[in-house]
Design brief:
This protein is α/β, with parallel strands linked by helices and 450 residues long. It is built from 14 helices and 18 strands. Helix content is 33%, strand content 21%. The strands form 4 sheets. Strands 1, 2, 3, 4, 5, 16, 17 and 18 form an 8-stranded mixed beta sheet that branches. Strands 11-12-13-14-15 form a 5-stranded parallel beta sheet. Strands 6-7-8 form a 3-stranded parallel beta sheet. α4 links the parallel β9 and β10. The longest helix is centred in the first third of the chain and has 25 residues, at 2-26. The chain is globular.
Amino acid sequence: MKNLKMKLLATAIAFIGWCSVAIAQDKPKQITLFTNVQVFDGLSDKRFKSDVLVEGNIIKQISKEPLMVAQTDNVTIINGEGRTLMPGLTDAHWHSMGAYMTGDPFAAGAGRLNLVAVHGAEKTLMRGFTTVRDVGGPVFDVKAVIDEGLFVGPRIYAAGSMISQTSGHGDFRSPIDIPQSYSRELTPQERMGTVAIADGRAQVMQRVRENLMHGAAFIKLMGGGGVASPSDPLDVSQYTIEEIAAAVEVAENWGTYVTVHSYTAKAIQNAIRGGVRNVEHGQLIDEETAKLMQETNTSVCLQPFYNDEDAIPMPPGSFQEKKYQQLISGTDNAFALAKKYDLLFGFGTDTQGNPALAERQGAQLAKLVRYFEPWEVLKIATSQNYQIMKRSGPRDPYPGENGVVKEGALADLLLVDGNPLEDIDLIADPHKNFVIIMKDGVIYKNSINK
């Protein structure tokens, strides 16, 4: 009798499971129809009038003729009334774990880091940034809960721990902590997964493999001096060409790529000789380096750093403040060289420890009109950033075309109240001007159909 009851129970559970799968399979896809919109496709210098049909998470149809769908429970029809429909914005140099932290992010525990990060992730999406490229930090759990739908946030292309040499940009130890044995204890930042200090080919390869084991879409090395770090001057090169090549070899074995934090010509040239094909920052490049980047198809992710309202606060007269002034002295020249040599250029903000500045993500993007036409600015932050992200190849966590309004592309879309190709400052006030925010076919903001 006991065995019979167990069999009946197992049969019932199996039947309930089958019914659940059948119901899920029969559930119709969510459909969204945008009518009467002016489309910026992420590529062109002009908008075009169209209707756009989204089915599930895919842009199904784009038509200059009116599209019709039956009004059912799974259908949302949005009359754009001539507003601009465009791809979601992207930030190709973002730090999810640090952007909204106040105080020293390196002193925070894992609980605080993750809670603040998911809080910031929702704010990021609600500014219209549907994808970020996270270039360093223990973001894998935050990415997972967003992808699972438990929390709201952008797509995240994650690098994981920032890999640094001893005395490099990721080494925040005090000089009195040095020397340490090769079998030393990990620092708190290493245990957290924020940085990984590695010297020599073997250690570098191990740390790269560990990041890939966590699910990294790409790898980031500290290839030169940085502003915030306590020990390294900005002008120094970090890692030997052989160490860089070791990281590249492991990443390429996994079908993905390495990017380097580097400001100076020498640091960037060393990275290129080691096989790296993407650079973060690059504010202190020269003509020779720009030519080499062009010849090797090396892309650069620049930031509009200036002495302006968004200047990074540093203690006056400090080592870090002097390095920041050195950095911003090259910003205009770096953008000029990137344009002159037609380098593949990405936009990122690199905001850390500054929630107020994080809220100005769109305003920082709008500053690029200093160098580009408004449509070019929007192209950089949509389809062009994705050219860098898609270098992850088979490690791409979000396969499919994105950053464009195109049939078959993923449905990450914004409906803008106005024409940002004429008034780029519209993107600086997303809470007012972005009336629809859609990621992966799901509407997260709708201030039209209330």
